[in-house]
Design a protein that fits this description.
There is one protein chain. This protein is α+β, with helices and mostly antiparallel strands and 104 residues long. The protein has helices at 3-13, 25-28, 33-41; strands at 44-47, 52-55, 64-68, 73-80, 83-88, 95-98, 102-103. It is globular. It starts with a helix and ends with a strand.
Length: 104
């Protein structure tokens, strides 16, 4: 857990934290990437059409592994371009769906 996430968790729990940093210049750079990564880990999308293919990789050149229908939940793990990799709730894991077929 990075320092800013730890500080936020401690603040929410009511614990006071005093930070000492050996390199003040390190604090000057904004830290947006860990927050974005944390948001993506918790993201659950819903399939918005019937007969949507899920694939073995991020593109139409990858094998179709199956299909899902409208309303199916999809737990997002990562992105590559307009493709989303994740786990089908109650089903296959590590599959890819084009983002046009997901409501997130």
């Amino acid at each position: 857990m990075n320092k800013s996430m730890l500080a936020a968790a401690l603040l929410i729990s009511g614990v006071t934290l005093t930070a000492v940093t050996a390199c003040p210049a390190a604090q000057a750079a904004p830290r947006t990437a860990p927050v974005a990564a944390a948001q993506h880990r918790a993201l659950v999308c819903t399939v918005n059409d019937n007969g949507v293919n899920f694939r073995g990789g991020p593109g139409t050149q990858y094998q179709v592994l199956g299909q899902v229908n409208r309303g199916q939940q999809f737990n997002v793990r990562s992105y590559e371009g307009s493709w989303v990799m994740g786990d089908i709730a109650g089903g296959r894991t590590g599959v890819w769906i084009h983002d046009a077929y997901l409501d997130c």
